[in-house]
UniProtKB/TrEMBL annotation:
Keyword field: Chemotaxis, Hydrolase
Enzyme kind, highest EC tier: hydrolase
Gene3D superfamilies assigned: 3.30.1330.200
Superkingdom of source: Bacteria
EC identifiers of the protein: 3.5.1.44
Protein name stated in the entry: Probable chemoreceptor glutamine deamidase CheD
Function summary: Probably deamidates glutamine residues to glutamate on methyl-accepting chemotaxis receptors (MCPs), playing an important role in chemotaxis.
Catalytic reactions of this protein: L-glutaminyl-[protein] + H2O = L-glutamyl-[protein] + NH4(+)
Family the UniProt entry places it in: Belongs to the CheD family.
Listed PANTHER family: CHEMORECEPTOR GLUTAMINE DEAMIDASE CHED 1-RELATED, CHEMORECEPTOR GLUTAMINE DEAMIDASE CHED-RELATED
InterPro entries linked: CheD-like_sf, Chemorcpt_Glu_NH3ase_CheD, Cytotoxic_necrot_fac-like_cat
């Protein structure tokens, strides 16, 4: 694939999503949050979401209509699927890649309910399967955070994973 001369650079904050064409590069940084990248290899289109929690406790409404919020897995996927549906290609033609769900505070979660990263990973896998998307790659869990870059023109996703515990142990602090 040829890299665009001037790619459109999109940075996703928690709760954001984006769907676009082949000239797009989408970036985000993840801790316990999860991103799902969707790519259509024939049409060279794709998108990504960055959600924080597996689901919302109660629905937010404006009047009698619910207002979707990309901070929650099921709602983020619903928002992104509206963009995917507008294209008209079957879901099974998309490749899905999953990232994130890191444990940012491993010392705090011993012997408790599953940490939020694990819950977010479970939600991503469940939603991909539920909607018939083919999950072709993942980089999930573990301790730490990830920098994620998705190049829509090629479908490539680049991940830099940093272990927060190793950073703490090896970064010297000068005290004078």
């Amino acid at each position: 694939m040829i890299t665009p001369l001037h790619p459109l650079e999109i940075f996703l904050q928690p709760g954001d999503y984006y769907f676009g064409g082949r000239d797009t590069r989408i970036r985000t940084v993840l801790g316990s949050c999860v991103s799902m990248a969707f790519w259509h290899p024939q049409l060279l289109i794709g998108g990504m979401c960055h959600y924080m929690l597996p689901k919302r406790g109660s629905e937010r409404r404006v009047g009698d209509r619910p207002v979707p919020d990309g901070r929650y897995a099921d709602e983020a996927i619903a928002l992104l699927m509206k963009k995917i549906d507008a294209v008209g290609a079957p879901y099974k033609e998309y490749q899905v890649k999953l990232f994130g769900g890191g444990n940012m505070f491993p010392e705090r979660h011993k012997n408790r309910m599953p940490e939020i990263g694990i819950q977010n990973v479970q939600a991503a896998r469940r939603l991909a399967k539920q909607h018939g998307f083919a999950c072709v790659s993942e980089h999930l869990g573990d301790i730490g955070y990830r920098n994620v870059i998705f190049e829509v023109w090629s479908g490539d996703v680049w991940v830099k994973h940093s272990n927060v515990m190793s950073n703490i142990e090896h970064d010297p602090i000068n005290r004078s």
